[in-house]
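Long-time lurker, first post. I've been practising inverse folding by hand and with some scripts of my own, and I keep getting stuck on stretches where the structure tokens seem ambiguous. Below is the full token string for one chain I'm working on. Before anyone asks, I'm not after the true native sequence, just a reasonable design that respects the backbone. If someone could post their per-position residues I'd love to compare against what I wrote down in my notebook.
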């Protein structure tokens, strides 16, 4: 099955199977299926992402994404949706809440998860490729590699008051 505008089309044969209610073809700017094909995310012209249950033909939810533009991508396990817009944002599909934003200074032309879902690869309009860690342990490693050392007890107290000090970045 593929998404053509707002219609779901069965292959082979090209027969329209369903059309999400309240959405017309010109409204749709991007689309992505979960790897199992059960959920369709439609990026709409009004900066919303419609989440749609393909089997039941029902709306699962709507996400508001500032500056939304293609692409939309699901993680290999279908648990995370990535949107491009004013930044690259990660959404938890279980809660339909934003769970993070990735530091990328350029407009993402395309996005792709690594097969294990730990890295998000982003291609910019200038052809440059960024490899962005999305797994928490990889994010911590990346931050520590950039800063070179962890927080001292004094820095911790100044930046994170009220929470007991613990070593970061190996000390």
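-- Answer (accepted) --
I ran through it position by position. Result:
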């Amino acid at each position: 099955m593929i998404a053509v505008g707002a219609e779901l089309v069965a292959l082979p044969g090209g027969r329209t199977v369903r059309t999400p209610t309240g959405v017309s073809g010109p409204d749709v700017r991007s689309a992505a299926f979960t790897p199992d094909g059960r959920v369709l995310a439609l990026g709409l012209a009004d900066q919303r992402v419609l989440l749609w249950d393909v089997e039941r033909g029902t709306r699962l939810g709507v996400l508001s994404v500032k500056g939304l533009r293609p692409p939309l991508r699901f993680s290999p396990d279908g648990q995370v949706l990535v949107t491009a817009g004013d930044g690259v944002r990660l959404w938890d599909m279980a809660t339909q809440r934003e769970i993070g934003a990735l530091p990328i200074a350029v407009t993402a032309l395309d996005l792709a998860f690594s097969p294990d879902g730990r890295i998000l690869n982003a291609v910019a309009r200038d052809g440059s490729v960024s490899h962005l860690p999305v797994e928490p342990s990889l994010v911590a490693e990346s931050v520590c590699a950039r800063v070179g050392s962890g927080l001292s007890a004094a820095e911790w107290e100044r930046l994170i008051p009220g929470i007991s000090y613990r070593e970061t970045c190996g000390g």
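A couple of notes from the structure itself: DSSP finds two helices and 14 strands in the chain. The chain has two domains: 2-104, 135-171. Happy to go over any region you disagree with.
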